[in-house]
Amino acid sequence: MNIYFQTIWRDLNIAVRNSSMMLNPLLFFIMSVSLFPLAVSPESELLAKIATGVICVSSMLSILLSINILFHNDFENGLLEQMLISKHSLPFLMLSKIIAHWMLTGVPIILLSPLLGLFLFLDIQSIKILMIVLLLATPSLSFIGAIGASLVVGVKNSGILLSLMILPLYVPILIFASTAVNNFIEGVDISGNLYFLATIQLVCLMLAPFISSVAIRISLE
């Protein structure tokens, strides 16, 4: 198991040394949320109604912004080929890279969401639900993004193609995530939304590493 933890640690170290890999998506997340009051209205009631949708959409786009480099650099320097021919499980190596990506993008988004929620006049209880929703939703975004990134790993300038492939798959997660907090604010039971998000995350956890490994194998062979 040491090799899989080393893979996570390696990706985290690379991101720390190349700070733009980690900071650009987060800056995009903060700026996109912050600009909505200027474009829509500074009224607290209106901002509170749209806050959940704004944060969920911004988090989805910021993760999408960073997903293209998940396998691209390793493909160019030959590391993916070394993973392929090694004796270690390629799906588990893919899972390690996806976990590292989520730790660099999803976790900071979750930690920043309370501040941005207060900025958009969400109450404390709604912010707690928002963090739970993001905790369930952001790993699925990384898993789905990894599938798309592995399919276009050998394609140059694949940003637009990757977006067209991934965005339709993000829509169900966006719907369940945004409606969960809105239903909580309105006093409606949200257990169904949380169960759906947890189910999507579990399915992505089981399928994404294997699909990514098959796509990587096809691209390299």
Notes on the protein architecture:
86% of the residues lie in helices and 0% in strands. It contains 9 helices and no strands. It has helices at residues 2-17, 19-39, 44-67, 69-76, 79-85, 90-119, 124-151, 159-185, 191-220. Helix 1 (2-17) crosses helix 2, helix 3 (44-67) runs antiparallel to helix 8 and helix 7 packs parallel to helix 9 (191-220). The model has no long low-confidence stretch (mean pLDDT 89).
So how many helices? 9
Beta-strand percent range: under 5%
Q: Unreliable runs, pLDDT <50, ≥5 residues?
A: none
The topology string of helices and strands comes to HHHHHHHHH
Q: What is the terminal separation in angstroms? A: 26 Å
Helicity level: over 70%
Offer a quick outline of the entry.
The chain is mainly α and 221 residues long. It has nine helices and no strands.
